[in-house]
Amino acid sequence: MKNLYFLLVLSLVSCMNNSSDKTPEEQQKDQLTTFYFIRHAEKAVDQGRDPELTEAGKNRASQWVNYFFIKDVDHVISSDFKRTRETAAPLARSKKLPVELYDVSKVDGVSLLETYRGKTVALYGHSNTINVYANALQKDSIYKELEESDYNHFFIVRVDKDGNSNATKESMDFME
Predict the structure, then answer these.
(1) Cα separations (Å) of 53 from 65, 82, 117, 125?
(2) pLDDT of 172 higher than 50
(3) How far apart are CA 42 and CA 61, in angstroms?
(4) Tens-place pLDDT, residues 131-160
(5) What is the DSSP secondary-structure string of 135-175?
(6) Which of 40, 72, 125, 174 has the smallest C-beta neighbourhood within 10 Å, fewest atoms?
């Protein structure tokens, strides 16, 4: 009788924890989504519209690996500019992920959330785009464009399964 009771309880517990009746998309929506919106690192000023990183920029890009060392990252995405791809590359290599490219003119907060729901994403963008994504997911407009000289600030936005969001503007001076 004791064994029968144990089996009954075990069966009930496994039935209650069984999420196999949910599709992968439904299971994914039950999770927290986290975006790190990061501006590209320092760029050369004498190379036209699509410059490469300076030595300081390359150093900053490498330091993102340290920041994310104990954090899970599912996707590393970058706009299709040399400076953003070069900033994203060290983190992508360290996490053994590809750098996924996105079109700055076609991406917004809603499309990002639809594409990456339930994931942790490091998105590398620009001083005038990363704040827009953070604002869209937060459903407000409190974050302004970063100053041209500001490479220290970035945004973290977390969205729960119900669409509730929490955004913060963080600062990290890697160069000190």
Answers:
(1) 16, 8, 31, 14
(2) yes
(3) 9
(4) 999 999 998 889 999 999 999 999 999 999
(5) HHHHTS--PPPPPTT--SEEEEEEE-TTS-EEEEEEE--TT
(6) 72
**Alpha carbon distances (Å) from 170 to 6, 8, 20, 34:** 50, 50, 38, 14
Spatial CB neighbours of 109, under 8 Å, sequence gap ≥ 6: 132, 133, 134, 135, 136, 137
Strands 153-159 and 165-171: antiparallel
Q: What tokens appear for 116 in the block?
A: 């990456």
pTM above 0.85, yes or no: no
Task: Give me the residues paired with residue 163 across strands.
Answer: none
CA 77, CA 67: separation in Å to the nearest integer? Answer: 17
What Å distances lie between residue 85 and 63, 72, 91, 94, 117, CA to CA? Answer: 15, 20, 11, 14, 23
Would you say residue 10 has pLDDT above 70? no
Q: Tell me, what DSSP letter sits at residue 31?
A: S
